[in-house]
Write a structure and sequence with these properties.
3-stranded antiparallel β-sheet; mainly alpha; HTH luxR-type domain-containing protein; Rossmann fold; 10 strands; 911 residues; 5-stranded parallel β-sheet
Length: 911
C-alpha cells in the first residue's frame, strides 16, 4: 500500500504513557474555533480608534478622496450604543452663506437671532438636546474644509461645551478652519489617519464587489491601479467586468485584459473635473493625456500660478530630478480622465504640446505617455518617440503597449532597435513563434544597418537563436550563436557585457537541451566580475546554481541562490519581465534543492509589494504556492491555490506552465475526497516543454496523479523509470525524487539505488535520502526517524510522514519503546500538517462532550487520579479513555496536545 497517498493515523488505541504534567494553565477556549483573524486589520484598528475617541469629545478622520472616510464614520456611529448622529456637509456653495451648512437646523430662527452667535449657539444646543432625548449626540461634519466661519465657530463651541462629540471628515486638516485645527492641536479631537487598503484587504473588497474571488493576477492589477483606494477599486472592478476584462472561470474572476477606461469610474472622474476652473482643467487634461511632462515644458503650456495651485491642492506632483517630471496625483486616475476627453479636444491639445516639446529628450515614461496620446488622436508616431516608449513599456511589463508602439511604425524601414522591442514584447506574452518570425523577417534590416551597434547586433542574434530553439522553428540556433561569436571577434574592446550576453544565450540553449554540465566555464568569473552588467551577473549566478543542483551540489546551489537574492534586494535595474523570469528560476531551484519552506517564503516575498525582494510574479502567487503544497503532499492546501491558478493560466500562460499546473492539481485532487465543482483538473499527455525542469516536474505529478493504491507496483515501476531517465540526463534532483517515491512503495532495489545516488550529493537532500535508504534497506527505525525530522525541517510533510509511519511500524515490531514514542510523535505531527481536516481543532469538534472535556483537562495538567475523582472513574479507566482520545486527536500525549493547542492560537495552519 502506498505511503504517499491517503495517509492515516495509527489504528491501535493503546494508551500511551502520560507525559509529565505542567503548571501551564489551559481552558476550554483552546477548543473553540477561531472565528476571526488573529491580527486585526488597519481598518479594524481605525474603527476602534474612532469609537474610543467618541467616548470623549470626538475625532478627525483624515484620508484621500475615496479612501472610505465617510464609510468609517458611518460604521462608527452605527456601532456606538446609545447615541444619535446629526450629519452636516460643507460645500463651496454653503460656505458663501453664514451658517450655510447649519441652515436646515436653524430655519426657526429669525434674522435678528441669526445676527448673534450667542443666540444661535443656545438655540442650536437646545434643539439638539431636545431631539436627542437623553442620548449621546455625535455631530458628523463631512467636507470640513468647506465650512464657513460661523458654522465652524458654533460647532467647535458645542464640542468644547461637551454638548456633542464631534466627528470631522476631511482630506487635509491644514486646509480646515482654524477652529477645527485648534481642537486637534489642543488635544480635544483625536486624529485618525485612514490608510489605503493593502493587497489582501483589497482582494476581500473586490470579492464582495464581484460576487466571487479574484485570481492573484486580477487582484494585483486592480490594486496597482487603485493603490488600495476602496472606491476606485470597487468602480474599477465593476468597469472591468462590464468590459469583459474580468471574466468568470472555474468559480474565479480571472484577468484577461486589457484595462478598460469606460464606465462608472470615468463618470465619477468627470464629476470631480467640474470642480476645476477652465485653466486648471486644461492642465489636468494635458497631464492625463501625456502622463508625464518635464516641468519646463509644462510651464510653457500652463501658467505658473495654476501649476502652484494644483501642486498645493495635491492635484499634481513635481518630482525631483534634472527634468523635474510633472504627473497627476495617483488618486486622480489619469487613464480614466484621458478616456473622457473628446477626440477634437485631444487633437487640439496635442497640437499645442507638439510646438513646445523636444521629442528627442523625453524620458521613457514621458515618451510612452506621448506615444499613447499620439495613437489615440491619429498622429503618426515619430520613431524618436516609438523606441523609448516601447522600451519603457517592456521595462514596466506592459507588453501590449510595447507592441502597439513598435507596430505603429511602417514595416518597411523600421529600425532594428524597435524590431527587437517588438520581439521582446511577443516573447513576454509567450508568443515565441511569432517573435521568431519577426526576427527572421528583420534579417534584411540587420544586414542593411551596418552602423548598428555591437549591442544591437548581438541582441538580435542571441534573441533569434533562443526563440528558434523555444519555438522549434527548424532554424539552427547554434549557427546564429557562431555568428554572434564572429561579431565579438571583431570587437577590440574589453567590456565583459557582450561576451557574457552570448555565453548566457549559449547556457540557455544548453539548459533547454538538458546539457547543464557543458555550461561555459567563464560564467563563474562573470558572476564575480563587478564590471559585468548587474542583470547579466544575476543570470550567470542562476545558471551556475542550476548546474550545481543538477549534479547534487545542493549546498553550493543554495549559496549561489542566496547571493543572487542578496544582490536583488540591494536594488538592480531590471525590467518586470526579467524579474518574473528570475523568480521562476529561483523558485524551481529552491524546490529542486528540497527547500520547500524557502520556496514558499520566496513566493510570499515576491507577492508582497511592500518587500524589497526585487522579484515579480507574472500570473500571481497561486501556482508556486500550490506547487509547494503539492510537493509536500498537502492536497487541500494545494488545491486552494491551484484552482485559481488553473483558471488564470487557461486565459494567460506566458511561460507554458499550464501543463504543470494541471498535473499538480490532478495529483492534489487524488489526495483529497473534495471534488472540484468546475470539473477535475486534466492530466495532459506527456510532451516535452521548452524548460526541461518544468517538463520533468509535470511528468512527476502526472505519475502520482495516475497512481492507484491497488496497483502500487505499477506506480513504483513508473517512478523508477522516471528516476532512471532523470539520472541518465544528469538530473539528480528528480532522480532522487523518483527513487524515493518508489522506495517508499516497497521497491528495495530503488532504495539501494537511492542510497547510491544520494552518496554523490551533498546538503540536506543527501542526508535525507541517505537516511531513508538505510532505514528501508536495514529496517532501521532510527534512520527513518532521522530522515523524517530532516524532511520536516524542509517542510516536506509528505516525505516526513511516510518515513515516520514506516519507522513506527518497525519500532512496533521490535524496536525500543523510546523509538516507538518518537516515531509516533513525528507521525502524528506530520499527519496534522497534511490537511486542515487532520488538525486537533477539527478533531475536537468530532468528539463527544465527555471526551472533549477529558482531553482538555488532561492537557491543562489534571492528573489521571484527579480526573478519575471528577468523573467517578478509576485512574486506569481514565488512562484508557485518554489513550483512545489521543489517537483520535493525532497527538502523542498530554504535553503534545497542550503544545498543539497553544500553537493553534498563535500560528495559522500551513497553507
Amino acid at each position: 500500500m502506498s505511503m504517499l497517498r491517503r495517509p492515516c493515523p495509527p489504528t491501535d488505541n493503546t494508551a500511551l504513557p502520560n507525559s509529565a504534567t505542567s503548571d501551564v494553565s489551559m481552558t476550554h477556549a483552546f477548543a473553540e474555533r477561531r472565528a476571526a483573524p488573529q491580527a486585526r486589520t488597519a481598518r479594524d484598528a481605525a474603527l476602534s480608534a474612532v469609537l474610543a475617541a467618541l467616548d470623549g469629545q470626538g475625532a478627525v478622520i483624515l484620508g484621500g478622496p475615496g479612501i472610505g472616510k465617510s464609510t468609517l464614520a458611518r460604521e462608527a456611529v452605527n456601532a456606538m450604543p446609545g447615541g444619535t448622529a446629526v450629519h452636516l456637509r460643507g460645500s463651496t456653495v454653503s460656505a458663501q452663506t453664514p451658517y450655510g451648512a447649519l441652515a436646515w437646523l436653524l430655519s426657526d430662527l429669525s434674522a435678528a437671532e441669526l445676527e448673534s452667535p450667542v443666540l444661535v449657539l443656545r438655540a442650536l444646543e437646545s434643539k439638539l438636546l431636545r431631539q436627542a432625548a437623553g442620548r449621546r449626540i455625535v455631530l458628523v461634519v463631512d467636507n470640513t474644509e468647506d465650512m464657513d466661519d460661523q458654522a465652524a465657530l458654533v460647532t467647535t463651541q458645542l464640542c468644547r461645551r461637551g454638548t456633542v462629540s464631534l466627528l470631522l471628515i476631511t482630506g487635509d486638516l491644514i486646509r480646515c478652519h482654524r477652529e477645527y485645527v485648534r481642537l486637534w492641536m489642543d488635544g480635544v479631537l483625536k486624529r485618525v489617519d485612514l490608510s489605503p487598503l493593502d493587497v489582501q484587504q483589497t482582494a476581500e473588497l473586490l470579492a464582495d464587489t464581484a460576487g466571487g474571488p479574484l485570481t492573484g493576477l486580477a487582484q494585483r492589477v486592480l490594486w496597482e491601479r487603485s493603490r488600495g483606494n476602496p472606491l476606485a477599486a470597487t468602480l474599477l472592478c465593476r468597469d472591468q467586468i462590464a468590459a469583459g476584462s474580468l471574466v468568470r472561470r472555474r468559480g474565479f474572476w480571472v484577468w484577461t485584459g486589457p484595462l478598460a477606461h469606460a464606465g462608472e469610474l470615468p463618470e465619477r472622474v468627470e464629476t470631480m473635473l467640474r470642480r476645476f476652473s477652465a485653466e486648471e482643467r486644461r492642465a489636468v487634461e494635458i497631464l492625463a493625456l501625456g502622463r508625464e511632462l518635464p516641468l519646463n515644458t509644462f510651464l510653457e503650456l500652463v501658467p505658473a500660478r495654476t501649476v502652484d495651485a494644483l501642486e498645493e491642492g495635491s492635484v499634481i506632483t513635481v518630482s525631483a530630478g534634472s527634468e523635474q517630471p510633472v504627473r497627476l496625483a495617483r488618486h486622480l486616475q489619469a487613464p480614466a480622465i484621458a478616456a473622457r476627453i473628446p477626440y477634437n479636444r485631444s487633437r487640439g491639445l496635442w497640437s499645442e504640446l507638439s510646438r513646445v516639446v523636444d521629442f528627442r529628450s523625453l524620458t521613457g515614461s514621458a515618451a510612452a505617455g506621448l506615444a499613447e496620446w499620439s495613437l489615440t488622436c491619429g498622429v503618426v508616431l515619430d520613431p524618436w518617440v516609438a523606441l523609448p516608449a516601447a522600451q519603457w513599456a517592456n521595462h514596466i511589463g506592459d507588453s501590449g503597449a510595447a507592441l502597439r508602439f513598435a507596430q505603429a511604425l511602417p514595416a518597411h524601414g523600421r529600425p532594428l532597435a524597435v524590431i527587437l522591442e517588438e520581439a521582446d514584447a511577443l516573447r513576454a506574452e509567450g508568443q515565441h513563434a511569432r517573435a521568431h518570425r519577426v526576427l527572421v523577417t528583420a534579417g534584411d534590416t540587420f544586414a542593411e544597418e551596418k552602423d548598428a551597434s555591437e549591442e544591437l547586433r548581438l541582441r538580435y542574434l542571441t534573441s533569434r537563436a533562443v526563440t528558434a530553439a523555444i519555438s522549434q522553428s527548424g532554424e539552427d540556433p547554434w549557427t546564429l550563436l557562431d555568428q554572434a561569436d564572429r561579431v565579438l571577434e571583431s570587437d577590440s574592446g574589453a567590456r565583459p557585457g557582450p561576451a557574457l550576453q552570448v555565453n548566457l544565450a549559449r547556457a540557455e540553449l544548453l539548459m533547454m537541451e538538458g546539457r547543464l554540465a557543458e555550461l561555459p566555464v567563464s560564467l563563474r568569473d562573470d558572476f564575480a566580475d563587478p564590471a559585468a552588467p548587474p542583470v547579466l551577473q544575476l543570470w550567470a549566478g542562476i545558471r551556475l546554481a542550476q548546474q550545481a543542483a543538477a549534479v547534487g551540489r545542493f549546498a553550493e546551489a543554495l549559496t549561489l541562490a542566496a547571493a543572487v537574492r542578496s544582490r536583488l534586494r540591494t536594488g538592480v535595474s531590471a525590467g518586470e519581465r526579467t524579474r518574473e523570469c528570475l523568480f521562476l528560476a529561483l523558485f524551481f531551484l529552491l524546490v529542486r534543492c528540497g527547500e520547500l519552506g524557502e520556496a514558499l517564503a520566496l513566493t510570499r516575498s515576491a507577492a508582497n509589494p511592500g518587500t524589497a525582494s526585487g522579484l515579480r510574479l507574472s500570473t500571481g502567487a497561486e501556482l508556486p504556492t500550490g506547487l509547494v503544497h503539492a510537493y509536500a503532499g498537502r492536497g487541500p492546501a494545494a488545491l486552494e491555490s491551484l484552482r485559481p491558478a488553473l483558471a488564470q493560466l487557461e486565459c494567460r500562460d506566458p511561460d507554458g506552465l499550464l501543463p504543470l499546473a494541471q498535473a499538480a492539481a490532478a495529483y492534489a485532487e487524488s489526495l483529497t475526497a473534495e471534488p472540484d465543482s468546475a470539473g477535475p483538473a486534466q492530466i495532459p499527455g506527456f510532451h516535452p516543454l521548452p524548460d526541461p525542469v518544468i517538463g520533468s516536474a509535470a511528468h512527476y505529478f502526472r505519475i502520482l496523479a495516475s497512481a492507484d493504491e491497488a496497483r502500487a507496483g505499477e506506480t513504483s515501476a513508473a517512478l523508477t523509470s522516471y528516476a532512471q531517465q532523470a539520472l541518465a540526463a544528469g538530473n539528480l534532483p528528480d532522480g532522487l525524487l523518483g527513487l524515493a517515491g518508489a522506495s517508499l512503495r516497497g521497491d528495495l532495489q530503488a532504495a539501494a539505488d537511492l542510497g547510491a545516488a544520494a552518496a554523490a550529493a551533498n546538503g540536506a537532500p543527501a542526508s535525507i535520502y541517505s537516511a531513508l535508504s538505510v532505514g528501508l534497506l536495514h529496517n532501521s527505525a532510527a534512520s527513518l526517524i532521522s530522515a523524517s525530522r530532516a524532511a520536516l525541517r524542509q517542510q516536506n510533510a509528505r516525505l516526513a510522514h511516510a518515513a515516520a509511519q514506516r519507522a513506527r511500524v518497525l519500532a512496533a515490531d521490535g524496536g525500543s519503546r523510546a523509538e516507538s514514542r518518537r516515531a509516533r510523535h513525528l507521525e502524528f505531527q506530520c499527519f496534522r500538517l497534511l490537511s486542515p481536516e487532520n488538525s486537533v481543532e477539527r478533531a475536537l469538534t468530532r468528539l463527544g462532550n465527555f471526551e472533549r472535556e477529558l482531553a482538555l483537562r488532561a492537557a491543562a495538567g489534571e492528573t489521571s487520579v484527579a480526573l478519575g475523582e471528577r468523573f467517578h472513574l478509576s485512574a486506569r479507566t481514565v488512562d484508557w479513555h485518554l489513550g483512545r482520545v489521543f489517537g483520535l486527536l493525532h497527538v502523542s500525549g498530554r504535553n503534545d496536545l497542550r503544545d498543539v493547542l497553544s500553537a493553534a492560537h498563535s500560528n495559522p495552519l500551513p497553507g
